[in-house]
Specification:
Layout: H1 7-18, H2 22-43, E1 45-48, E2 52-59, E3 63-66, E4 69-72, E5 76-83, H3 85-91
Antiparallel strand pairs: 1-2, 2-5, 3-4
Helix pairs in contact: 1-2
Length: about 90
């Protein structure tokens, strides 16, 4: 398995693909990430047809006891990603 790409690698790839300066690519990437983040917060997720879907998910809090002491955790909101058919095909070929 290869190393996971970070923001720097994505910015460089966008700059090269579009033939733009890295500073412009950085600004575009930050805007896209902000928009996707905001849509996840406001609308519960975002879907990119045939690529992937990001959805908000609630992990229910739990209760239990440890060494005779009761404990309880709060509900937690997280995100899940589901791979679309097009990307799944690309990943497996």
């Amino acid at each position: 398995m290869s190393k996971i790409a970070g923001m720097k690698e994505c910015v460089e790839a966008l700059a090269q693909k579009r033939g733009i300066y890295k500073t412009e690519a950085q600004s575009i990437m930050e805007d896209v990430i902000d928009i996707v983040s905001q849509k996840c917060i406001e609308d519960g997720g975002v879907s990119f047809k045939d690529k992937f879907t990001i959805k908000k998910k609630v992990i229910k809090g739990r209760t239990g006891s440890l060494n005779g002491k009761q404990w309880e955790s709060e509900d937690k909101i997280t995100l899940t990603i589901t791979v679309g058919n097009g990307l799944a095909f690309e990943l497996n070929n």
